[in-house]
Amino acid sequence: MIHLPSYASTGERIWFYSFKVICGLIFFFLIAPIVIIIPLSFNAQDFFTFTKEMLAFDPAGYSLKHYRDFFTNSDWTSAIYNSVRIAPMATILSVGLGTLAAIGLSQPHVPFKRLITAILISPMIVPLVISAAGMYFFFSRIGLQGTYWGVVLAHAVLGIPFVIITVTATLVGFDKSLTRAAANLGANPIVTFWRVQMPLILPGVISGGLFAFITSFDEVVVVLFVGSSAQKTLPWQMFTGLREQISPTILAVATVLVALSILLLTVVELLRRRTERIRGVSPG
Amino acid sequence: MNESDANAIPLAADGRPLEQSLQRALRRQKLRALMLIAPLLAFVMLTFIAPIADMLYRSVDNRIVSETLPRTVAALSSWDEAQAELPDRDVFDALYFDLFFAAEYKIHTRLGSRLNYQQTGVSSLFRKTGRRVDRFDTDEITEQFIALNPQWENPEFWVSLSRDKQFAQQLPTTASVWQDWLKLLAHDEKSVAEEQPEDLLYYALYLDLSQIEAGQQSPGFDWWAGTTAAVKNFTPVDMVAQFEKTDEDWLSMDVWGVLKRFSPTVTEGYFLNALDMQKTAEGIQSQPESLQIYKILFVRTMVMSLVIMGSCILLAYPVAYLLSNLPMRKANLILILVLLPFWTSLLVRTSAWKVLLQQQGVINDLLVWIGLVDDANRLVMMNNQFGTIIAMTHILLPFMILPMYSVMRTIPPSYVRAAKSLGATNWTAFWRVYFPQSVPGIGAGSILVFIMSIGYYITPAIVGGTQGIFISNRIAYHISSSLNWGLASALGAILLILVLVLYWLYDKYVGIDNLKLG
């Protein structure tokens, strides 16, 4: 199907090309909505569509005013500040606890392994509204509702499944004889962990961390309930903007976030390839 | 090796029996694994499982009625709604005491709103009665006591009376009201010796004393004989009439029926409401048609999730097929087109759709420009089900493509070639040989997409309008706007059960360990 043989019939040729066109359209559907907001964010007018000047590539039709608004308006800057304060802390918590647990889970004999895995993965499966409702009720009881730490803890637990999944995947290919060799050469378990095991599973830990980071950085449902206006994060501000009066600044924010996700995607891809190379599985 | 050596128990290097030594090592290994997991497990238990348990508890928790109106609930226990008679006077007396304290603590409105979920009008009834309960005509009783003996006016006299061993035994109602009175004063940081006793204390005393038989032995109070005799001739206060004067609804069977039905500490009421049913005097019944919204909402959530899942399958299959048949290097490159949306913020994608689908948005502009749509009647693609479906299909598509791709990658191309060389047409080779092998990928992706989509909140809230919202949006509404947390919890519990069943299926057929990211 992918290579059209020279003896293909007309029907096969038509099908071959229409298949390619269909796939192209689907890729267009996937990418276009994200790409189209980038030029729109430079609109000099407060419109959500291309103006005549923009279509004529007239420089007057373009401006950076929405970006200026994003970086100067106090609503947005305090949202950036909150996001930057919450996400890294939540990431550190998820990565620290998650990596330890993933190492524990990949030991050969773990009692109740299935149950424990199910519990640790559940924050990813349970709908966010339910987690948010439960955390809102419970955190109000223990005085964490509306506090910085309440949001951090909630985000950390949401990021944990991603850390567990990625680190466990890295550990599957981990050669146990390396730790045994280290122990044999006189290293104690802590030295073995930091000098032998950690460098090898580091790509998995980092990509798990990136997943945890993006989970917290993107999260809006839980922070809406668990946080108070003092913890208003970037997605929260976007959500409010989208629900109430939608301002074109949102397009500038979206463009910045797309750039961030491209950056994260690149890092994760590079790490994944590195892991595959180390394991001897070439990516092609 | 001789005979006896072969029968001897094998020993480890330290001289212990080998089996024992191995078991010890195994135990230590298990313990070490658990120690590594324990911190995270404790963390997840505290910050995730406990909140979920709290929510589940709230979906049946109904302590508010018996905590706010303890005496009324106890007095109502012998009343039977089916007899179609109002409760006895002692129930109204109990309600008087309970409501007095509830109004002092200002918790009667909370109970009113709680019961209003079951019976409209109760909330205003409680608010109104709470305002007036301390102005009931029970002051007539107070005056008659003081006229009989001025010492009743003195708080010190009450304090000394309450210290008497006979007090609680002889005057049980007064004693229990007195206890609550002390608590109230402590709560308001007032001194009992300085506060004028409220009318309800005199009323409680009156109730107690009027029940004393004439010949009953005196407990040793010097005022006992005279007062018990005098109380018989007091002008009584008709408590039922007092309530009736405040609001006629107190003589309504509906109000008392709701109080009776919702007096237990645990209720299935919220779950019934979440399923469009209610507890009535005649047992569990469906809500009137006009109030049935949750079943429709659940069905709509499921149907729309199925549609989204279906469109994801349709769009993902060709893409996954193409990717799995390309050389690895090229496939990885094209895969970036799938991974970029996957990594892009959900809100960015939702805002993109909001911008695109607007009536003055890019898609409508384009259609007008082509001439497909007239400028005057641009398409309405947002704030309806179409908006939700198209935006969510876009958002969830990577979650379908990735599992499908990883399954299709493992299907050897030689099978299809073999089928063709045996005479199968292209279609037969695909449908009979390739497609069945790709079904596990479809299954894995479908369950994943379905699980994610039935719990969606953000996208329906932004592009869904009123027709495109999901059950999650209703849950959020009950938590933050209507404050009916019990109903929100019950709806959440039902959704949770649905998701857990799907999760279990996913784990059984796909295995949660096989979940891959990126």
Features:
heterodimer; A: mainly alpha; MetI-like fold; 12 helices; globular; B: 518 residues; mainly alpha; elongated
Describe the 3D structure:
Chain A has 284 residues and is an all-alpha fold. Chain A is 75% helix and 0% strand. Chain A has one domain (75-279): Orthogonal Bundle (MetI-like fold). Chain A has helices at residues 10-40, 52-55, 65-72, 74-105, 113-125, 128-141, 148-172, 176-184, 189-218, 221-226, 234-243, 249-279. Chain A is globular, with a radius of gyration of 24 Å. Chain B has a two-stranded antiparallel ribbon with strand order 1-2. In chain B, helix 11 (172-187) packs antiparallel against helix 12 (199-209). The longest helix of chain B has 41 residues, at 18-58. At the A-B interface, helix 1, helix 4, helix 5, helix 6 and helix 7 of A face helix 2, helix 17, helix 18, helix 19 and helix 21 of B.
Domain count of chain A: the total is: 1
Report the structural category of chain B: mainly alpha
Binned, the helix content of chain A reads over 70%
Tally of separate helices of chain B: 26
Number of helices of chain A: 12
Give the largest interface pair and sizes. Answer: A-B, 99 and 96 residues
CATH class call of the largest domain in chain B: Mainly Alpha
Question: What's the β-strand tally of chain B?
Answer: 2
Q: What are the segments of chain B in which pLDDT stays under 50 over at least 5 consecutive residues?
A: none
Strand line-up across the major sheet of chain B: 1-2
Find the count of extended strands of chain A (DSSP E, 2+ residues). Answer: 0
Mass-distribution shape of chain A: globular
User: What does the oligomeric state look like here?
Assistant: heterodimer
Could you tell me the strand content of chain A as a percent range?
Answer: under 5%
Backbone shape of chain B: elongated
Strand content of chain B: under 5%
